[in-house]
Design goal:
heterodimer, A: 113 residues, mainly beta, five-stranded antiparallel β-sheet, 0% helix, B: mainly beta, seven-stranded mixed β-sheet, 50% strand, globular
């Protein structure tokens, strides 16, 4: 089983739709979580951190479920500009090892006009 | 507001040639990383440096070497390039534990 798993998609949704992605992780000791977006042939860019109580940034909402070991990203009112690949990142901190930063393979989203 | 700067942005090499990819960050971050990304695959960690003066292997270190020259700079060297090393290489840095990584805009490397 991969340490971090994402549905690769593609998710094709119409403008204005609500879409949700999940990301599951295997290490229960994971402590910090992030969502990144990556546009074609560009670098990953931080979209938002994921906090235990859940957090929202405009049209984006991130949730963490520690019991079931998954994080989610909800995008409301999708825009054409939201088309990208969304990567989840799971960190197991402590132990001094940067190996504990684990990226999912990404979920591809295309928002259609 | 440069953030993480990578050079070069593009490079074509012949098999067996050597080259060094440069990375510099101006955010005073402690940790720096080198990843490669291949089509249809996620980011794979090559090497990282948790702090100035230290380096460690990641998931796919074979064929690469690194140098943490100072706090700002972390270089990746291919001693004898192979076609399997054709990839997009990303450098990243982060302030410390619990913080997100910031990426450079990548080096697209082709080895013929």
């Amino acid at each position: 089983r991969k340490e971090v798993e994402q549905d690769p998609g593609p998710f094709n949704v119409p403008e204005g739709a609500t879409v949700a992605f999940n990301c599951t992780y295997s290490n229960s000791a994971s402590q910090s979580f992030f969502w990144y977006r990556q546009d074609c042939r560009k670098e990953p860019k931080l979209l938002m951190s994921v906090y235990s109580s859940g957090n929202e940034d405009g049209r984006f909402t991130a949730q963490l479920n520690r019991a079931s070991q998954y994080i989610s990203l909800l995008i409301r009112d999708s825009k054409l500009s939201d088309s990208a690949t969304y990567l989840c990142v799971v960190n197991q901190e402590g132990g001094g090892s940067a190996r504990q930063l684990t990226f999912g393979s990404g979920t591809q989203l295309t928002v259609l006009p | 507001n440069a953030g993480v700067t990578q050079t070069p942005k593009f490079q074509v090499l012949k098999t067996g040639q050597s080259m060094t990819l440069q990375c510099a960050q101006d955010m005073n971050h402690n940790s720096m990383y080198w990843y490669r990304q291949d089509p249809g695959m996620g980011l794979r960690l090559i090497y990282y440096s948790a702090s100035e003066g230290t380096t460690d292997k990641g998931e796919v270190p074979n064929g690469y070497n690194v140098s943490r020259l100072n706090k700002r700079e972390f270089s990746l060297r291919l001693e004898s390039a192979a076609p399997s090393q054709t990839s997009v290489y990303f450098c990243a840095s982060r302030e410390g534990t619990g913080r997100a990584q910031h990426f450079g805009d990548g080096t697209r490397l082709s080895i013929l």
